[in-house]
Amino acid sequence: MTWDGAFNLRDLGGMPLVGGGVTRAGVVYRSGAPEWMTALGWQQAQAAGLQTIVDLRNAPSETARLPHHPVVGDAADFARAVSTPTEDPDDEEFMRVCGPWLDHPRSYVDNLAFYPEKFAAVFEALAGGDGAVLVQCSGGKDRTGMVVAMLLSLAGVEQDAIVADYEAAFRTANDFSRANPGLTRNFAATDEELDEWMTERTAALRSWLIELDVELYLRNAGVDAVDIDRLRRILVSD
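Above: the chain's sequence. Below: its structure in token form.
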């Protein structure tokens, strides 16, 4: 599926659930920065039912429109954007601990430990979103990958499918960086480098998922039981 100009976009529907069945299509999407979308792309997103955008980036440093982004006028005005950053780059202790591992699942445990209130806000925004919801960051692979993995885990998606979704997003972002040098903040890896990165990152992701109890984390972070139940069901048909 595509919305014109959309970067690293994917529907989280059709993913296998533990015990049988698949996730619902057309309710949660993931992507990179939406500023790449054209006016036509926003029209396609509206037609797909998009109403809420959960933006994981740090504002305003990552969210400004740049000269190379398409002009869209008021085409995106239908969607409600909720700013819910997952980190604080001005937090010296966070950067000391997680800085060397940003863009890597090795940072996820510490990132979650630093900011339970930030992640509570992310998941409350997901639970309270109207219509279809888009979860996005800049590249659509790391912060989005972390949050989406938590949502998929809570929904009961098979671990192999969660890992495959993460890897697909990472590889797509790398392809985009390679095709558009200088237009993203991401370093474009060679095929050999990327294969090495993915071996290391997916192993770390699996280890994190094995230890992860999303419901317990969200409950301790202050997300109420009604929202947790809604999050568990958002991708699962009755």
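The chain has one domain: 10-229.
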